[in-house]
Specification:
Strand content of chain C: 5-15%
Number of strands of chain A: 14
Structural class of chain C: alpha+beta
Oligomer: heterotrimer
CATH topology of the largest domain in chain C: Ubiquitin-like (UB roll)
Number of domains of chain A: 3
Low-confidence stretches of chain C: 174-186
Number of helices of chain C: 5
Strand content of chain A: 25-35%
CATH architecture of the largest domain in chain C: Roll
CATH architecture of the largest domain in chain A: 2-Layer Sandwich
Order of helices and strands of chain C: EEHEEEHHHH
CATH superfamily of the largest domain in chain C: Beta-grasp domain
Chains: A alpha+beta, B alpha+beta, C alpha+beta
Number of domains of chain C: 2
Strand order of the largest sheet of chain A: 4-5-10-6-7
CATH class of the largest domain in chain C: Alpha Beta
Number of strands of chain C: 5
Distance between the termini of chain A: 59 Å
């Protein structure tokens, strides 16, 4: 399990990174946190000609919030988000990020790396989907803004081109007071999830659903936004029956993954169970938000 | 006299381990070492193997590429099995038949499993060796593989070994009483099939071997993280045709093991060192380790049990199939252990176990912590639970109804053990053990807790399992105890500790006899140059065999010490007393000598003693195994929608006889329980339908983590063994024997209305989901 | 493009320099080049935690870092666990007194991970301890006494009481304070 040979560069500016990627194309791989890439190299499942270590590119670190937007530089470490003051980070994001692996992995792992790796169980992917995420990718020719829904195209596959690097993730916070939740289920604490659900929900004082986003990870070959569930929820009065309805139609959007039909059925049940719990949790928090703003 | 046995002496090993200054195999540096990467078979079954290593030999940094052809004149294949001196009574009584065993070091012509070593690429470092290994071109013609016993037993199945008539390598039928007659007469019956899936021993350290051959002196030194250095030396001498005294095997600090063998890689690396004339090193990586080491369990049990309406079990009939992989060097160890222990602590007079070891194109299964007893205990204790469900009785009551009472101990179980001796549960109080466990976990009040939890939408369950363990297996262990020129006590022992704290515990045993504090006693192990015969550490044997060997040697040395002191002081031995490293005349305490004085006196040529030397050796041959036992109770929480199981509470009541160091005993119990919980819920070594190994990574093979194991309460109820001077019993494996049964019984209890059968481990979430679905839950 | 590079970094408080292969992992470099054999390889895929070191003030799996990434950083291994008095770190003592180790192979990584926990959470609950250690696998102890060891150290320790954390925590921003192959920190 020793790494195969590769050339290595550690540029300090984004421009240098882009030049290298332009020159090497799909022979180059970007090294950010390394928590996903290095194991691939150790198993010799990836054999890049060049490793471009972007850890010294300070421009990729910045994170800021403008009104209604959360922006994360692609080199933002999971741990930084986990340890940021709670009022600056929505609950779903905090809950998601604490479930990524273990502390030592979160100390190194990055937002950009997690998105680029496009694991079906990526917590950041689920997060990006429920906050209308835009992934900013740059190459030597320019910049693309890729909506999260278009970004994840298949198993460990993203829309990112070989000569592109993710620079930022932009998330749009809902305009009205909302609650959010993220729940996942893994065999062991910190393992890749068998399923996970992110929910953002805003309710009127009469409990009508004003805004909703639902994303599922781990059940399909890529993280998926569940439009059917959202449509079932939007404008309706929130309650147990509505939750069940939303959970039921989850299957409409999920191209289930799994070793066989039994496994796929199980994944679906996990997704439905977690969706119910995430919806309940998010609704409770949404009501607290409304109460807090009103009171 | 101070007492050191039974004290929680802090470990002498700890200082180097907590500071990271231990020396494990990969920490040993010899100048000029070249690193090995094995080229391994990608086919489960193939012949007409050809190997073209030209490109690899030319690669950067490569020293050599060796195949079976290169080692042909130098290395003989494996032909001797482990535990090969089977007592003839087993053949006579049980029709025991074991086929021949022949296994290559490097395969040639035929390969019989994915991962079988084919060639060694030896290079300046492991990075370069792996690069070059990719350039070795191997071709072969695939043969249809047999990947499970059904396939292997099919009349048309390809036979793995030409010298066997079929893929059955070993077989026996144990019979006690009249099992079939009793079955016919029993009032109730259950027929059930159980499956214990394949798992890995999986210590956190991988295997490693370093070999160095000095051509001038023709001395071979081999470092290996082996559980049996002397055994390894024996195999090397035989297979490399060297004199025994030309070989020294050293076992460094070791990162666990949990089941040992002698591996082809060990012999190959030694051979390479001879061929190349420079030190050769192989440090296994985890991907190799998961596929190629310590596979175990993998049994089917087809059970028929007869019992009466009052819950009394009257007969047990078991047909066992053990999937042994491509070679079966441990012959019937795992299945005979199962047969010997399946009746657990119960008074069952009728038994029949028919077992077959079936060869398949997979990694050989070898004993790993629990070694057949875990499988048997799982089967028996699930049966007890199924009986309880059928009769609508509490499992604890069924157990109590069937336990052998203390008044009937020692109890001859009506059969022979693997060593040819009568299988006798020598000591213990099983009903008291169960009562203790029930009290500790709060069994009586659990039902109310369970109901309250149910009303809150939570599913808690409780499960019980007990076990017995024939521990301290022979044939022997050796120890030499001496007082050196500094007047200090040295212990040399043939054991091979890998976490079992021998430097501390054996010092305590010796300290007890010589009345010197344990921290003044040095203990060295794991080196064939220390003493001529050594057993090694496996099978929960060391407290019994190493402990008693050290004890007996210390007793001999104590006698010798008093003799020499008597000579030096010019008085009779019977007037002398030994206390705190000094020997003095009770009637005249000023007349005294220290160990240091005696060391001087005993030096040859001192003129102070008739014969020189202050040393004693002892080889302890246990009369037979001595039976440790335990009762475990687990409380779990099940989330049926996610099919998840969390173990919330766990109690162990254990009887390991005299406890040399209770803190160490508890540590062994904790570790065993965690391993057993891993077997119950997480661990499975898998092959796909093409014979490819699919759990070769730590994200696929799941070891339990700190969040998977609850706090574990250990209660000791010691009944000293009547079979050895120290009264000890083994404690290394008991912890790992009962958890699968306890945990699955608890899951069944949590979902009692569904009447889940739960006949397989591990109980993965997917399997539980399907079971619940099938039961209409 | 050369496959060797020069690195200069602080290891256990001392400035070190070496020429190393760019594909060698930090774990291999620390062990082979700098003799820190207390960094153990259990899986080389970042799961078992036996190779855990302190990298710029935070735990990291040395098998998931390249040796060349050490340039300009501060790294502490078990060999450098600090103690104001020169004695063992309190965790090293409590791991022994609580019998939180048997074979010792997972122990260095376990201690370093536990040290980071009690540095950040001085009074951790059992759940917090188990979660923090869930990325360090142990096959010997069943974790019970490891949890006990951490709890004992947390209760007894504190600033100036044997549980200090390596200085030089420069946050989660990488080595960026140092330029490539540049001068050491003072």
């Amino acid at each position: 399990m020793k790494l195969p040979p590769f050339a290595y560069e550690a540029p300090e500016t984004l421009a240098e990174v882009l030049d290298l990627l332009a020159e090497w194309g799909d022979e180059a791989k970007v090294l950010a946190g390394g928590q996903s890439l290095i194991p691939l190299l150790a198993f010799r499942l990836a054999r890049p000609g060049l490793l471009v270590d972007i850890n010294r590119v300070r421009e990729l670190e910045s994170a800021e919030h403008t009104s209604g937007r959360l922006v994360f530089g692609s080199l933002t470490r999971h741990r930084a988000v986990e340890q940021a003051s709670p009022e600056t980070i929505p609950t779903a994001i905090r809950e998601a990020v604490t479930q990524i692996g273990h502390v030592a992995i979160r100390n190194r792992g990055t937002v950009g790396g997690s998105l680029a790796h496009a694991d079906p169980s990526s917590e950041w992917a689920a997060t990006a989907l429920v906050y209308d995420g835009i992934i900013l990718a740059r190459n030597a020719s320019g910049e693309r803004q890729i909506p999260a829904e278009k970004f994840f195209v298949g198993f460990l596959a993203s829309d990112l081109r070989p000569d592109e690097v993710i620079t930022r993730l932009e998330l749009r916070l809902p305009e009205q007071p909302a609650g959010s939740a993220f729940v996942e289920y893994a065999r062991r604490h910190g393992d890749f999830a068998l399923g996970g659900v992110a929910v953002v929900l805003a309710l009127s004082p009469e409990r009508a659903v004003r805004h909703v986003r639902v994303a599922v990870m781990g059940a399909a070959s890529q993280p998926t936004r569940c439009h059917a569930a959202e449509a079932a929820l939007l404008g309706r009065e929130f309650g147990d029956a509505l939750i069940d309805e939303a959970a039921r139609v989850l299957s409409d959007d999920l191209e289930l993954t799994g070793t066989d039909s039994d496994d796929r059925r199980f994944r679906l049940q996990i997704a439905r169970t977690l969706a119910r719990r995430a919806l309940k949790s998010a609704a409770g928090r949404a009501e607290q938000e409304v109460g807090a703003r009103a009171g | 006299m101070t007492s050191y046995i039974g004290k929680d002496v802090a470990r002498f090993e700890d200082l180097r381990f907590v500071t990271g200054t231990g020396t494990y195999i990969a920490d040993i540096r010899l100048a000029g070492t070249a690193d090995v990467c094995f080229v391994r078979s990608l086919w489960p079954h193939a012949h007409c193997l050809t190997i073209d290593a030209d490109a690899a030999r030319r690669a950067d940094g490569v020293v050599a590429v060796l195949t079976a052809a290169d080692l042909a004149g130098l290395v003989l294949p494996f032909s001797r099995q482990f535990y090969s001196n089977i007592d003839p009574i087993l053949e006579a009584e049980y029709g025991l038949w074991i086929g021949p065993y022949r296994a290559p070091v490097l395969a040639s012509g035929k390969v019989r499993r994915v991962g079988e070593p084919l060639a060694m690429v030896i290079a300046a470092d492991r990075y370069l060796a792996e690069d070059a290994a990719e350039l070795v071109d191997v071709t072969a013609e695939p043969i249809a593989p047999v990947l499970n016993p059904d396939e292997a037993l099919h009349p048309d199945a390809p036979v793995l070994h030409d010298d066997l008539p079929s893929n059955v390598h070993a077989e026996f039928t144990v019979e006690v009483g009249d099992p079939v007659g009793a079955y016919d007469q029993a009032q109730c019956h259950i027929e059930q099939r159980f499956r214990v899936r394949r798992s890995n021993g999986c210590p956190i350290e991988t295997r490693g071997v370093i070999a160095q051959f000095d051509a001038a002196t023709r001395q071979l030194t081999v470092w290996s993280n082996t559980q049996t250095p002397h055994t390894l030396r024996g195999y090397l001498a035989e297979m490399l045709r060297l004199r025994e005294d030309a070989i020294r095997v050293i076992k460094p600090d070791m990162g666990g093991s949990f089941g040992g063998a002698i591996y082809p890689e060990e012999v190959a690396v030694a051979a390479a060192a001879i061929v190349l004339g420079r030190p050769v090193r192989w440090i296994e990586d985890r991907q190799e380790n998961l596929a190629n080491a310590r596979h175990s369990r993998d049994q089917w049990h087809e059970i028929r049990v007869g019992y009466n309406l009052d819950g009394k079990i009257v007969t047990l009939i078991d047909d066992v199939i053990a999937d042994s992989g491509a070679y079966n060097p441990f012959n019937v160890t795992l299945s005979f252990n199962a047969a010997s222990h399946i009746r657990n602590q119960f008074d069952i007079d009728n038994l029949r176990v028919h077992a077959r070891h079936v060869l398949t194109n997979k990694q050989p299964t070898t004993p790993v912590r629990g070694a057949g007893r875990t499988e048997a205990t799982f089967v028996m204790d699930r049966i007890v639970d199924l009986i309880a469900a059928d009769l609508e009785m509490d499992p604890a009551d069924i157990r109590m109804r069937n336990l052998i009472p203390a008044s009937e101990m020692p109890r001859d179980m009506g059969m022979y053990y693997r060593n040819g001796r009568r299988l006798i549960y020598d000591s213990g109080d099983y009903p008291a053990q169960l009562r203790s466990a029930l009290e500790k976990i709060g069994y009586a009040s659990f039902r109310q807790r369970q109901q309250e939890a149910r009303r809150a939408g939570r599913y808690l369950g409780i499960g019980i399992s007990s076990h017995v363990e024939g521990s301290g297996y022979g044939p022997f262990e050796g120890a030499i105890v001496r007082i050196d020129g500094s007047g200090k006590v040295n212990v040399a022992c043939g054991s091979s500790p890998h976490g079992q704290s021998h430097e501390t515990v054996l010092a305590q045993v010796c300290a007890e006899v010589l009345d010197v504090p344990p921290d003044e006693i040095s203990v060295r192990t794991g080196d064939t140059s220390l003493l001529p015969y050594g057993g090694g550490t496996y099978g929960s044997r060391s407290a019994v065999t190493a402990g008693n060997a050290v004890h007996l040697a210390a007793v001999k040395l104590r006698k010798r010490v008093v003799e020499v002191a008597a000579e030096v002081l010019g008085t009779g031995s019977d007037r002398l007393t030994l206390q705190g490293g000094r020997i003095f005349d009770l009637a005249n305490p000023a007349s005294c000598v220290t160990f240091w004085d005696l060391a001087r006196a005993a030096t040859p040529g001192s003129g102070m003693t008739a014969t020189p030397g202050l040393e004693a050796s002892a080889y302890y041959v246990p009369p037979t195994v001595t039976f440790a036992s335990g009762t475990h109770i687990a409380i779990v929480e099940v989330d049926p929608s996610l099919a998840s199981v969390k173990v919330r509470q766990y109690v162990v009541v254990d009887d390991c006889g005299t406890m040399l160091n209770p803190m160490i005993v508890e540590g062994q119990q904790h570790g065993g329980v965690a391993h057993g919980i891993g077997n119950a819920l997480l661990e499975e070594a898998c092959y796909d339908s093409d014979g490819q190994f699919t759990t070769g990574s730590f994200l696929d093979y799941l070891l339990p983590a700190a969040t998977d194991i609850p706090h574990i309460d250990v209660v000791h109820e010691s009944h000293p063994s009547p079979l050895n001077p120290l009264g000890v019993k083994g404690t290394g494996e008991g912890g790992a024997t009962s958890p699968p049964a306890a945990v699955l019984n608890a899951v069944a209890d949590a979902l009692r209305p569904l009447r889940l059968e739960l006949t397989e481990i591990p109980l993965s979430p997917l399997r539980l989901f399907l079971d619940i679905e099938a039961a209409g839950g | 493009m050369p496959d060797e590079m020069r690195i200069s970094f602080t290891l256990n408080g001392t400035q070190r320099t070496a020429m190393i292969k760019s594909r060698h992992t930090l774990a291999d470099v620390l062990r082979d080049e700098f003799g820190c054999t207390g960094v153990h390889l259990g899986c080389e895929q970042g799961v078992c935690g036996a190779c855990t070191v302190v990298f710029n003030g935070r735990t990291a799996r040395a098998c998931l870092l390249l040796g060349v990434q050490a340039d300009g950083t501060s790294i502490v291994t078990i060999e450098g666990m600090p103690s104001e008095t020169g004695e063992l770190h309190l965790l090293q003592q409590t791991f022994s007194s609580a019998h939180g180790l048997q074979c010792g192979f997972c122990t260095p990584g376990m201690i370093i991970t536990a040290a980071e926990l009690i540095h950040e959470v001085p009074a951790p609950t059992e759940t917090q301890i188990r979660e923090a250690l869930s990325g360090n696998l142990c096959r010997c102890t069943g974790y019970a006494n490891i949890v006990l060891a951490v709890r004992r150290a947390a209760e007894a320790g504190g600033p100036d009481r044997g549980t200090s954390w390596p200085e030089g925590a420069s946050g989660l921003s990488d080595d960026a304070a140092q330029s490539h192959g540049g001068a050491p920190d003072d």
